[in-house]
Recover the amino acids of this structure.
């Protein structure tokens, strides 16, 4: 594929996955999902988001992509990153400082994320760690926007670490396989779907 990709299928067992979902449910009480809007076009993302940690990723038509300390709708600071999430970073990141941002992406079946680079962070030497929960996502990754790409099925409990050359790769989610997991249920997730947590260092330590 591409150098610097760490792929850990089934890194998290069922109990660890349920612990993470419970932590996210509690985060949502304090920091509900918002719908980001693309700069210039004003188009809404089909993915909704929230964050935990001292910094959170947001986007709106006026301000564009950025990190900020407060929720765009409530104006309150993001809740802390749950310990169960920090434990995953410590196990796989091979980076001696804590993450500052944990972006929570929620994909209903039908949501997608177009091919993009993650370059809103100052500290590109730190890895990005991704945790997949719920329905399977078809993840696409390429070294260049036009060149060849690979597709990887990201299943519930899989962890990805993007470091080195992979850190500036192009990537996205082509589609969600609705009904492929029973992890996300109940009133918070009536349609199932997929949650992805991405852990990032934003500032230079
Ligand atoms: C490759 N999220 O939040 S996770 C994103 O499944 C994002 O929600 C996707 O792309 C998702 O920016 C993909 C895997 C991932 C995360 C971060 C990366 C791949 C990455 C950063 C750099 C390169
Ligand atoms: Fe990304």
């Amino acid at each position: 594929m591409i150098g610097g990709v760490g792929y850990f299928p089934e890194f998290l067992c069922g109990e660890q996955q349920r612990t993470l979902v419970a932590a996210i449910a509690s985060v949502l009480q304090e920091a509900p999902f918002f719908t980001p809007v693309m700069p210039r076009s004003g188009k809404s993302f089909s993915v909704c988001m929230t964050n935990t940690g001292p910094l959170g990723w947001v986007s709106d038509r006026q301000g564009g992509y950025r990190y900020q300390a407060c929720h765009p709708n409530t104006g309150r600071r993001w809740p802390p990153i749950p310990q169960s999430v920090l434990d995953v970073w410590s196990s796989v990141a091979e980076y001696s400082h804590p993450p500052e941002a944990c972006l929570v992406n929620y994909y209903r079946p039908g949501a997608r994320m177009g091919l993009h680079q993650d370059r809103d962070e100052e500290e590109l030497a730190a890895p990005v760690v991704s945790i997949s929960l719920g329905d399977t996502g078809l993840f696409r990754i390429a070294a260049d926007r036009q060149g060849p790409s690979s597709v990887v099925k990201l299943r519930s409990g899989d962890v990805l670490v993007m470091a080195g050359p992979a850190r500036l790769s192009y990537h996205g989610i082509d589609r969600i396989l609705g009904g492929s997991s029973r992890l996300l249920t109940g009133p918070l997730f009536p349609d199932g779907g997929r949650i992805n947590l991405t852990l990032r260092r934003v500032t230079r330590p």
Residues 14-30 form the longest helix (17 residues). The chain is about 15% helix and 30% strand. The CA atoms of residues 132 and 172 lie 13 Å apart.
